Amino acid sequence: MSPDSFSFVGKASGMCAVARDSWSAAGLSSVLHNATYQQTNAMDRVFAICSNESSDTVGRVAMLLWCIWHNPNDKLWNDNIQLPRQIGRHAFDAWNDWYSVHKLQSNNVSGTTEADLVRWEKPTLDWVKCNVDVAFVSGSGRTSMGLCFRDNSGHFMAGITQ
Question: Which InterPro entries is this protein grouped with (predicted)?
């Protein structure tokens, strides 16, 4: 089985080389080319990787597969074209971010008490509350935001995303 057959995107789209090169950029080419994982279909290959690799490597592979799958959709819907090294680097960085947060949470010996939880509070009578959230991808120049308006009973009134 060639590395191109594990791209999770069709050969007609020309994305096989992008997918293969993304594995390399993510530091996972040794997993892609490992003779142990040269099964005849992607499902068996993923199962073999999950059965034989460490949970860290499996997590990195899962993140990379998601980034490879997401790339054509991002191109189609957002006109955002990423090079293989960008896809691989994004997967690598996203996994490291997740791992760092997960490790911090698992090292928290005190645990979270109910007082530590942030809870939404209703606005006072005759007022509307607007909750805002924003996101950005560092270095990409891309941002998104969302607004949610609720009345003093907590009922949804309107929302906006961009």
Answer: RNase_H-like_EbsB-rel
